[in-house]
User: What shape does this take?
Amino acid sequence: MSTATTFIKREAPLKSGPRALLQRFRHGDEITHLVTLVFAASILLITSMLVYELWRTSYLSRTKFGWNFFWTRTWDPIFDNFGAAPFIYGTLVTSALGLLIAVPVGLASAVFLSELAPRKVSDALAFLIDLLAAVPSVIYGLLGVFIVVPLMRTTIGPALIGTLGHIPVIGKLFQPPNYGVGFFTAGIVLAIMVVPFIISVSREVLLTVPREQREAALALGSTRWESTWKVVVPWARTGIMGSIFLALARALGETMAVTMVIGNDPKISTSLFAPGYTIAAVIANEFTEATGDLYLSALIELGLVLFLMTFILNGLARILIVATERGGGHAA
Amino acid sequence: MNRFLLIWRKSVNIVMLTLTGLAALLVVSILFFILGYLVWNGGTAINWDFFTKLPKPVGETGGGMANAIVGSAKLLFLASLFGLPVGFLGGVYLAEFGGKAFSFLIRYTTDLLNGVPSIVIGIFAYSVAVLPVKHFSTLAGGVALGIMMIPIAVRTTEEFLRAVPNSLREGAMALGASKSRTIATVIIPAAFQGILTGVMLDLARVAGETAPLLFTAFSNRFWSPGWGQPTASLPVMIFTYAIAPYDDWHRQAWAAGLVLLALILLANIGARLILARGTSFRST
Amino acid sequence: MKKTSLVASILLILAITVAAQPGTVLLNGAGATFPYPMYSKWFDVYHQKEPNVQINYQSIGSGGGIRQVLAGTVDFGASDGPMNDDQIKEFKEKRGTDILHFPTVLGADVPTYNIAGVTGELNFTQKAIAGIFLGTITKWNDPEIAKPNPGVNLPNSDILVVHRSDGSGTTYVWTDFLSKISPEWKTKVGTGTSVNWPLGVGGKGNEGVAGLVKQTPNTLGYVELVYAIQNNMPYGKVQNPDGKFVKADLAGVTGAAAGAAKNMPNDFRVSITNAPGATSYPVSSFTWLLIPAQIPDAAKRDAIKGFLTWMLSDGQNYTEALAYARLPKPVVEKELKAISLVK
Assistant: This one.
């Protein structure tokens, strides 16, 4: 913090008039405000252009199928009959699984790295965990195919089917047949892919929680865990939620790795071991080969549907945050 | 009764703290496993040729991925040029200047943008940067990757600027600094560590993206001169080689994955060494 | 310190952005994945022969090749399935000239499987293949599969069908064959690079299908011949319209093409699946380069014509080494004449 302590010579601020405007301008606040505003607005511009493009190129498909697109279960490029239902289902299931696994593991790791590990170890590990984010999607896919899929088929699958499969209601999720590829495998691969985001950002945010907060809790007699869980984590809650948003977004849009392990079968099944399909995966698989205009349009419409899903999910998540807010965040 | 409660709380304490340790151990093991797998499968393909030669057709040994390495570097450079200023300054706006409604809109939009599949962003960049000029280019690839960089940059910048306690802002203002001066000289340096982490994470994420490049930067068997020609890149090479029938290409694909990770690691280290100056705000 | 590093980086960037050498002809092509190894070899050898011609080909899929050539973002395309009439019309409207098809090599799809205890080659009747992919034949020991394979111990297990998830020319050829041998397939599913498969899981790329088949017991999938050979995968014999069970090999594939060569249309768009001939392999196919009939840039035009001429003569000698089948002589001769159509 170099120049914060120097005194800045300032003229007495003028009240109004053109000279006042000029003065404020010179002090840089207006410019900074304007510049940052422009850049922030450009995000809106880019996203709007994107949505407009999606809207425009999906025209044929939207007009032909209308609202039916959402619940039609067929995807037939030869007879030009397209529906989004299996893909919506697959996207939701795999992302939910991915987050269900990644959030507890990620948050727990972040807590460990920020609260318990010695600083040097924590820094080094965090550095390395960031690397996980750089592993190309294709490689995650290959690792999924070579390692997770056989594991699922020979070990994890039979174990879960044998035990949880017999419990009523929940058991429906764990039914054979189990080929190794399917929703569950995709969920696991997604979890591994998004966990670095959660850990990296959460850890940094947890480190910014003021020491006084922890010490106050400990001074009141709480155990280490209690001070962490009840004081530190809530303080960092918006940052942690932010990291989960990042993770969710990545999971929803992941293409390559998912398509290699999900089985690519556009069907809705209750069993987690069944093969499925996601929006991003089908677009990645078929876009390069799609030559019919309606076909292409339907693929683009799927992209639009995903956009809508992200919109709704983000909205729900934010409502959830507001509803559970008990004043635990740090002062803005 | 009190004693039981105490024992319960103490046990919970130990169990939970152990679980966090186990979770961290799990993640780190996975990381080392992945690294080990890459080294095991691709290590033999890493030699001097890999870094200096152009790819050779199948059946001939001695090929390399020199053009892909340079191509990825150029693409990431462009992506940072397009995406980081927008993301960073946008984050500054949200944290320091924004009005409630407008900021909410921008945050929401940013999250939406983050959820767009990479291939859809590639399609968008294709219609915007490739179709009008009728050829693929490094520039188009940079645009696609740049758009992907924006959301993470915005989110992390805003988060870490907000994390700087108000006492610092107030202190600076008390000394007579204008708002922009405070931001530039006090708040941003204090949040620097976190923002840098975010930027590196961002870079890491787009470095491995394949789908958006297929329709923008395409790929190139040869060197790509300038910014207006198609260019090879590590992720696309990995993709092409991994799904080919030849074992030699498979090894090169794994090797390329390793090289990509190594480059990101180097960039990360390099950035921290060059840019980190002094202490930034941390409570512990 | 910061200023110098900034200057240094600018210089480095300028160094990388060196403009292309004058006199170099840069051609970009996109399309089918199947012939990618062959094309990359050819373009490389041709580059050695003509060092100022750089042909950059990327495999983004047959449909991708067609689309990019329609959009004009590449100089030529490549596809495992010929462009249909609508697409040809569209090309004429958009680009103002005709699109020409030039067959380059031949390939084949083979049925590959993984059945515990079965190591030899299975014979598949046409009914068997159609039934398996339609889902009407579900078990390995179904009489239709067992009949032509006496002495093979087929298990009483469900068949897991593995198909391609990504759109591909390989799928086009396989479904083209299925449409010809099964009217039910033709009406229910059809021919295309992506279809609505009645059942089965999808693997991404030949690698994906091969991987799934190798790892999962009781599977049946289809992959390109080149792929099966390179990866030492067991594949079965397919019954051709003459009733014979033929194992795919280069001779059988060229044989199928030779039969079709007699009736080869002038635009070379022909399907040779289910071709007659005792030794013909029934799931064979040409793969084509898509070249615009008019190329305004003289240097590019000469480069393309030069390459095509070389490809049809010398180039064909490189095919066998990579497990691709060469074009039959009558087709080569016809094509050489057609090169003059490129103006």
The beta strands of chain A are 75-76, 81-82.
